[in-house]
């Protein structure tokens, strides 16, 4: 969907016009009360469910679809690709209308709140005044939380999975190392590598390898890879000795083939900047005092990127505001990545929650007044 | 000290000749029973204590010196720089006798055990048949442990601080990301950057930034830096926003000015390869069954690089062998770096331990027979 009205951004810059790519699943009901917006995390896209003819599956296909926890037989689900991405919505590799050349380094820094503003316009255009739920994991969870703050009346439920209301110093540190790997790659050319016919693959590869470590738990890595050797003995060189090296390098190589370096920079900045309590002197209770949604939060015990403590902080602040909160802490070994994996307890929590959301719609407890 | 006898290495390669740079503190007593060997970790050297005229302090100057926990009024302390280092002992930037040109990428991969062999020759040359103690933190602790396995009769005490008997998959993963940052830096030139008049600064900088994150605890970073901004507000660019970014980039820049990239590669490989139980089917108890030393192990609660669990494993294996083990787990907030810092409980543990070691020497309980 093309938007010709300029979008003012938190930085003070604006996008003169922009396109958002989105996918929908299921059918919007007559009173438009069954829409669920699914927000994506770092390297994902609008393709949240189903399979393309090419065989590419949606990134949350285990969660979303007919008969799945977020059941597209009952809900109208929207996956939207964020501004700055490299998967279709307006981003650094697209032409800057002011110059006719790719934005590159001139694409403005966008924030979680900017994304929510752009998504709100999409909702307007689709005739959705109020979402049954806005949902996301990790950076996607930040967007759901921001929706509940910026547009309290526009969502009845807010589903925040494996997320946080702000990054820790350690999180920011990892992001900055990744960015420095990209920014100092000679092929980065100050962000204008498109014009040079190259991409900063080495930097992007290192960034991804590092990121990947933080998505997995120490224990999970120990179980999956341990100290297993690729060829049974030490090579006494700097090639691949350990299986974990082989795995990470493969992940890094693959990522550097399809992901855009400017997008990586932008998305990690959006992560770092997200801190809605900043305007409220760091008081998360005050920050969430205007929210009206009900909340589901889920965290995973071995997630050291966005640890359960971060969810506890949000739950406490919501309880302080007497919001209705459901919180599940799943004892899963898979670290941050657990939010994308098939854990039956996790899936059942989400399934049960959305069954309740659907009852409100179907059972008639949802009156026009309740949604105002 | 120059050694003209070739040193066979675990890899099968050998060093035709080599130099070890070392420093000593205190006085070797008449029966040569008060010598303590101090082994260094990643970016340290033989300069363990005291100050040069330039003002450069030894890296463990808070621990070692007159009246300090390891008291150089009582002990003869030796700091030795490891092979492959960039601080004086034979390393990649030195001339390969076979070619007359710097070793560069041709410097052989050396292991913890290789270092111990080279150190044993130094001990021979200094007339030290048996150390009162061999001591080290982190990678230095691995060397102390290897001494106790390879030369059980040559040390009476083994002091292993903030260390492990083997790296986890996560440890190896971080090391490999650091190495990949260096290896893929175009200025690395396959390790022969000396000939090109450049150094792979960008790669080394990223490696150090990443390493630094793993030396600190999440909590400690939160306390020291939190989300503090350098200039009070977001800059909406990719310069420095947060204090933690400023700190890490500064550390990375400084490191890339003085440290050698080939040395970084070699030392991380030595870390990754260390796994003395490998030959014993992973059975650490069997591995340590020939040790004869008494042991002091220390770990720090917030050290997630070499967590207390790694020390527990070593303590258990030593107890299984009925070795005399003292173990202290210090509740310190500073992560892995704690082993270099002034925590009074930690310092007192080491002080008390060495007081006991000295009593054995001074009190005459140390008989020639007991040392054979």
Task: Report on the architecture of this protein.
Chain A is α/β, with parallel strands linked by helices. The first copy, chain A, has twelve helices and 13 strands. In chain A, the strands form four sheets. The first copy, chain A, has a seven-stranded mixed sheet, with helices on both faces. In chain A, strands 1-4 form a two-stranded antiparallel sheet. In chain A, helix 3 (169-183) runs antiparallel to helix 5 and helix 3 runs antiparallel to helix 8. The longest helix of chain A is centred in the last third of the chain and has 19 residues, at 344-362. The model of chain A is unreliable at 368-372 (pLDDT under 50). At the A-B interface, helix 3, helix 5, helix 6, helix 7 and helix 8 of A face helix 3, helix 5, helix 6, helix 7 and helix 8 of B.
Fill in the keyword field for this structure:
37% helix, disordered C terminus, globular, seven-stranded mixed β-sheet, 13 strands, 12 helices, two-stranded antiparallel sheet, 14% strand, 372 residues, homodimer, alpha/beta
Helices and strands, with pairings:
The structure is a homodimer of 372-residue chains.
Chain A (H helix, E strand, L loop, with lengths): L1 E2 L3 E2 L5 E2 L2 E2 L2 E4 L9 E5 L24 E2 L4 E2 L4 E5 L31 H14 L5 E7 L1 H12 L4 E7 L7 H15 L9 H4 L4 H15 L2 H7 L18 H16 L2 H13 L10 H4 L6 E7 L7 H13 L4 E6 L13 H19 L5 H4 L1
Parallel strand pairs in A: 6-9, 6-10, 7-8, 10-11, 11-12, 12-13
Antiparallel strand pairs in A: 1-4, 2-3, 5-9
Helix pairs in contact in A: 1-2, 3-5, 3-8, 5-7
């Amino acid at each position: 969907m093309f938007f010709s009205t300029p979008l003012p951004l938190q930085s003070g810059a604006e996008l003169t016009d922009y396109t958002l790519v989105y996918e929908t699943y299921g059918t919007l009901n007559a009173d438009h009360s069954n829409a669920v917006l699914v927000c994506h995390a770092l390297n994902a896209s609008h393709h949240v469910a189903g399979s393309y003819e090419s065989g590419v599956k949606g990134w949350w296909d285990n969660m979303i679809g007919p008969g799945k926890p977020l059941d597209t037989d009952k809900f109208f689900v929207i996956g939207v690709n964020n501004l700055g991405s490299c998967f279709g919505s307006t981003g650094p590799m697209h032409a800057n209308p002011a110059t006719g050349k790719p934005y590159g380094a001139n694409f403005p820094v966008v924030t979680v709140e900017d994304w929510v503003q752009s998504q709100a316009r999409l909702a307007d255009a689709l005739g959705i005044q109020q979402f049954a739920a806005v949902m996301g994991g990790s950076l996607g969870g930040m967007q759901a939380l921001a929706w509940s703050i910026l547009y309290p009346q526009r969502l009845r439920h807010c589903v925040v999975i494996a997320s946080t209301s702000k990054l820790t110093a350690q999180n920011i540190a990892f992001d900055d190392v990744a960015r420095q790997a990209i920014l100092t790659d000679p092929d980065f050319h100050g962000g204008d590598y498109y014009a040079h016919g190259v991409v900063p693959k080495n930097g992007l590869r290192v960034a991804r390898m590092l990121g990947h470590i933080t998505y997995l738990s120490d224990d999970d890595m120990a179980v999956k890879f341990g100290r297993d050797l690729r060829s049974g003995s030490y090579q006494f060189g700097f090639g691949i000795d350990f299986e974990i090296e082989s795995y990470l390098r493969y992940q890094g190589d693959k990522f550097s083939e399809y992901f855009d370096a400017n997008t990586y920079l932008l998305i990690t900045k959006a992560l770092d900047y997200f801190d809605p309590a900043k305007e409220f002197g760091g008081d998360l209770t005050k920050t969430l005092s205007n929210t009206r949604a009900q909340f589901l939060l889920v965290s995973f015990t071995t997630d050291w990127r966005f640890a359960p403590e971060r969810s506890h902080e949000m739950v406490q602040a919501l309880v302080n505001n007497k919001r209705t909160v459901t919180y599940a802490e799943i004892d899963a070994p898979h670290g941050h990545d657990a939010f994308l994996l098939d854990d039956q307890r996790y899936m059942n929590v989400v399934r049960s929650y959305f069954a309740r959301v659907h009852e409100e719609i179907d059972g008639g407890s949802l009156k026009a007044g309740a949604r105002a």
